[in-house]
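Quick one, tokens below:
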């Protein structure tokens, strides 16, 4: 067949905009494609919900790629291992309830399975604000990460979602926007409590407990949940991120 540059461009732009137009109104919008966001996306999409994940970077996966200290190995505990097994990640039994996985395999399969389930991942998009209607978060304000990186003064566009999830990891960026602009979160002080020191066992337990609706229409999951509720970090054990993503999906499914 003859190959034409403009026909290639036409098909790229055409396909992207078909998918993007179809994602302007969602059941659930997820900010951040780390392990918690990708897990939530898969469970929600498996349940037939219309889900999109907006990820600032080009590569989804968040902090999981680098495993511990850059060695591409992550640890999960037995309570969470089935979430990786469901997507075909091969685990090595390390004894005493610990399992190891290759982090590159884990990220790739979490991404692939979320997409196979029907979730869309829009990479290179940064969420900079929320849309609030009747005291409920009803959507997200998004911009291209390239515009954000170039610090250009370009207005963003919006998407509508019945529920949104802050899965932005340590910075808890969406909850921070709510704290700054609305000044009221569903935390003991109504503010962000700040992430605490390392305590893997507490951190893992609390990240699941802290996965909840923090403002009407907005859930928080993963490391952002511990940052918002003032709980410890846990280092390179990732079971809590997976369990938290699953819980966020289950809680939202009860309401949809
Ligand atoms: C679009 C955004 C925005 C934005 C951020 O950090 P993550 O991997 O998040 P989690 O919570 O799924 O996993 C946390 C884990 O990786 C980790 O850091 C652990 C376990 N730490 C323990 C410890 O002790 O340190 O992914 C968040 C993703 C990233 O890819 C960001 O680029 C993205 O969210 N993101 N995307 N718009 N405003 N903010």
């Amino acid at each position: 067949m003859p190959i034409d540059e403009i026909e290639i461009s036409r098909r790229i732009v055409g396909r992207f905009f078909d998918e993007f137009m179809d994602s302007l109104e969602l059941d659930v919008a997820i900010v951040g494609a780390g392990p918690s966001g990708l897990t939530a996306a898969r469970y929600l999409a498996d349940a037939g919900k219309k889900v999109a994940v907006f990820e600032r970077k080009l590569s989804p996966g968040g902090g999981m790629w680098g495993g511990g200290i850059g060695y591409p190995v992550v640890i999960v505990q037995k309570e969470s291992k089935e979430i990786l097994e469901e997507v075909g990640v091969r685990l090595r039994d390390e004894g005493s309830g610990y399992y190891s996985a290759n982090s590159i395999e884990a990220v790739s399969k979490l991404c692939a399975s979320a997409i196979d389930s029907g979730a869309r991942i829009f990479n290179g998009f940064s969420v900079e604000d929320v849309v609030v209607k009747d005291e409920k978060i009803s959507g997200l304000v998004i911009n291209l990460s390239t515009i954000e990186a170039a610090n250009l003064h370009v207005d963003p566009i919006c998407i509508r979602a019945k529920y949104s999830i802050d899965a932005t990891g340590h910075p808890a960026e969406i909850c921070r926007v709510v704290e700054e602009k609305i000044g009221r979160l569903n935390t003991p002080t109504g503010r962000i409590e700040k992430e605490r020191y390392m305590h893997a066992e507490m951190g893992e337990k609390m990240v699941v407990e802290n996965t909840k609706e923090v403002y009407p229409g907005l859930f928080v999951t993963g490391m952002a949940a511990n940052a918002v509720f003032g709980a410890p970090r846990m280092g390179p054990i990732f079971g809590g991120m997976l369990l938290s993503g699953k819980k966020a999906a289950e809680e939202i499914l009860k309401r949809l």
